[in-house]
Input
Amino acid sequence: MEDNLDLDKNQELNRALLEFQVDNIEQTKKSVEVSRYEGGSRMISWVMKIFNIKEEKYANYILIFFALVAIYFSLYLVFGNNYTGYPNDIKIIPAV
Output
């Protein structure tokens, strides 16, 4: 029973600790990679991560382009419809 208490002699425990240490190092690298873009907002860092962009300036351009497309689309939905009322071939019968 005393052999299991000595941590230096227990090979299975040493292997498990080494594997945990390697996993922990990989998780640390991932968290450092995500937090690399903390200079700006979360949306800019998200765009930089999704589009694999290195400079914040280009991420801003993408967001501005997206905003312009959204504004154009909404203006088209509001003002672009040429609906002028009832079609000419429908006859409205007056109520008696």
User: Anything to note?
Assistant: Residues 13 and 69 are 58 Å apart (CA to CA). The two ends are 104 Å apart (CA to CA). The mean pLDDT is 76.
